[in-house]
Amino acid sequence: MNEKRYIRLDELDAGHPLRQHPFEATNAGVPDGYFDSLPSIIQDRVVQKQHGWSVSWSWQRSVASLAGAGLVAALVWVTWPARQDSLGQEALANVSNAAIANYLDEEGISTTDLAEYAPLQKAFDEEKTIDQLRDVNLDEIREQIDVLSEEATKRDS
Known about the structure:
single chain; mainly alpha
C-alpha cells in the first residue's frame, strides 16, 4: 500500500540539486578541516536531540503558573477544616442530669466505670472536699432538697 520507494542517485538527472556537489554552489570548494570536524558536529546535534526540549519562559506560562497556584490556594482555603473550640462550662451547665444519664446508658458506661475514672477520684479527694464544704450554706442545701423532692413527687403521680 504505502511502501517506501527508494530513489537511487544515478536515477536522477544530472541537473538535479541532489546530484550537485554541496560546495560547488559557492565555488569555494570544501572548507579546510570540514571532514575533520564533521563527526563532532554530528555528535553535538545527536546529543542535543537526545536531551529533548528546553524550557523557554513566557508571560503566558507565568500567568498559567500563578493561576494554578491561586486555584490550589483557594481550594486549600475552602476545604481547610475549621478549628472547633471546647464548648465551655456555660453550654454544659444547661444539659440536664437526665440527658447525661441517658447518654452514659447509651454509651454503655456504668457507675462503676465512672467511680474508677482517675480525674473523678481526684475531684473527691478529702482535702478538696473539705475546702468545698467550708463555703456551704445549709439553708441552700435544704431548699434544693425540698425542690428535688417536690419534682420527684410530681413525676411519680
